[in-house]
Amino acid sequence: MINQEIEQIEHYYNIIREYLVTYSFQLLAAIFIFLLGLWLSRKLSKATENLMLKHNIDPALTNFIGNVIKVLIITMFVIISLGKVGISITPFVAAIGAASLGAGLALQGMLANYGAGLAIIATRPFVIGDTISIKGVNGQVKMIELGHTTLINEDKVEITIPNKHVVGEILHNSFANSLVKGEIGIAYDADYQGALTLINQVLADNAKVSQDPKPQVGIEEFADSAVILSYRYWVPTTSLIETKLEVNKAVFAAIKNAEIEIPFPQRVVKIIQ
Q: In what order do the strands lie in the sheet with 158-162?
């Protein structure tokens, strides 16, 4: 029994020795080629990313292309290295193909997200910093990944949307800002023109309110007890709530200080005898 084990050890030892004697220089060359591939992939990937960023290309697309270049170069040098040491890559390719087929069937949802992510990065319907609304969810785009897109809304809540729910849907993009609408009622006999001027001044004095496009101020409707003045303006999505509260407070104070009447809801009832 011991003799058989010794013979097996000697057999494997002879195989390894013969292999090293035959392929020693090829093995060193394969290691050198592989290390060269790693170094070259990092250099070319970094150079490509720097070039794309220099031309103001979207960071998500830049990162994706850089990673693709790195993987392709490493794969090419691995194939060359295996060929140097006499290893045929045909069985590996067949095994990888079979494994990829099985993985594709098992991970259809994930692959759909990745495919949609590639479509978003390639077509760029929105970029980081834009404010989008899709399927009842809205917020500012914080990050675009291959599998999902991350939004942050005015409440500072992060929202993660799988990319397959983004591609093919109706998408609203207001870029970096969001629209805010406010209203205030004044008496029918009040100076409505003076009230509109005050509201315009309040919107012009607030640094967070965008002046391009310009705010819109006017009469919204003629209600039962008051003339409703409406004001619409654009603000950065991440400061939407705080700016809305500031503007409403300033508008109310300006109207009150100008002694423009803000009426209570009322109804006149006539009794006919």
A: 158-162, 148-152, 137-144, 131-134, 171-175
Q: What is the rounded distance in angstroms from the CA atom of residue 172 to the CA atom of residue 134? A: 7
Asked if residue 162 has a cis previous peptide bond (ω within 30° of 0), the answer is no
Continuous H helices in the chain: 2-54, 59-84, 90-106, 108-123, 192-205, 240-257
Whether the full predicted model's pTM is greater than 0.70, yes or no, is no
2-56, pLDDT tens digit by residue? Answer: 666 776 777 676 766 666 666 666 777 778 888 888 999 899 989 988 888 887 7
For residue 250, what are the CA distances in angstroms to 19, 29, 185, 199? 85, 75, 15, 9
Q: Burial of 10 by CB count in 10 Å (0-12 exposed, 13-18 middle, 19+ buried)?
A: exposed
Q: What is the pLDDT of residues 153-174, one digit of tens each?
A: 888 889 999 999 998 889 988 8
Burial 203-232 (b: 16+ CB within 10 A, else e): beebebbbeeeebebeebeeeeebbebebb
What are residue 152's DSSP bridge partners? 140, 158
- The closest of 167, 160, 158 to 121, measured between CA atoms, is 167
